[in-house]
Amino acid sequence: MPELPEVETSRLGITPHLQGQTINAITVRTDKLRWPIPQELQRLVGQRIQSIRRRAKYLLIDTPNGTAIIHLGMSGSLRILDETIPPVKHDHVDLVLDNGKLLRYNDPRKFGAWLYSEVGLQHAVLTKLGPEPLTDVFNAEYLEEKAKNKKVVVKQFIMNNAIVVGVGNIYASESLFMACINPKTPVGALDSSQITRLVIEIKTVLETAIKKGGTTLKDFNQVDGKPGYFAQELHVYGRAGKECLICQSLIQEEKIGQRNTFWCENCQPFDL
């Protein structure tokens, strides 16, 4: 599933093509993705695109008459194409622009979403989200206060979108490795120095992944069709049974909260 760096990479890729353009048409070829596609999206036709934002894993295309909210789901992707290029299988939505281009959404599994939000209102999917990890609001003091007396393991804690958005499975495993914290450690047992280091590593890992264009494992590619190159930087994720790049111990794998989790027992000791 595309995570924050992949979504941010998509935002950076589509923005130069969409910013300031007028929406000539919105072509919808399916009634439903993860949720029904609202008819209200058509209110954006004829509107000028003011900005393209990201909130958590959602892309927001703002116009004077409302906002299109896009989620890539597990296999969704966006492409900028000439409007003359015919759709292929799984091309579900086109945002046709007045410059002869279109934004095309393809989603084989249909777990993504296209939603609509009125001006001045916040859609329900955005109301309970925690802070963005790359902002100053997400800091050691904030995370320590949220972690106080909590027994949930740290990996599940930092993947909770109500605590901080966008730290998905890949980047949670990688951040914990870089912070030398075992993913099964109860978050309330971490001391201040560990929490400080964890916050630093979450920011560093996400920033590096964005610079590398995200992580291509199966479905994700950038808007230009190129793969994300952060996969070459992975220390633990997807490397079960292989030698740790730091200490040569074998990388471990276990399901935590129904998600595959990877760590090095030597670099990330379980020490309470």
State the distance separating the first and last CA atoms.
Answer: 33 Å
> Biggest sheet, in brief?
4 strands, antiparallel
Number of helices: 5
- Beta content: 15-25%
Share of residues in helices: 10-25%
**Which parts are unreliable, with pLDDT below 50 for 5 consecutive residues or more?**
215-222, 224-230
Structure description:
With 272 residues, the protein is α+β, with helices and mostly antiparallel strands. It contains 5 helices and 10 strands. It has a 4-stranded antiparallel beta sheet with strand order 1-6-7-5, covered by helices on one side. A 4-stranded antiparallel beta sheet has the order 2-3-4-8, with helices on one face. A hairpin with a 2-residue loop joins strand 9 and strand 10. Helix 4 crosses helix 5. The longest helix is centred in the C-terminal third of the chain and has 20 residues.
List the helices and strands and how they pair.
Layout: H1 4-18, E1 23-28, E2 51-55, E3 58-63, E4 66-71, E5 77-82, E6 91-97, E7 101-106, E8 113-117, H2 140-147, H3 154-158, H4 169-178, H5 192-211, E9 251-256, E10 259-264
Antiparallel strand pairs: 1-6, 2-3, 3-4, 4-8, 5-7, 6-7, 9-10
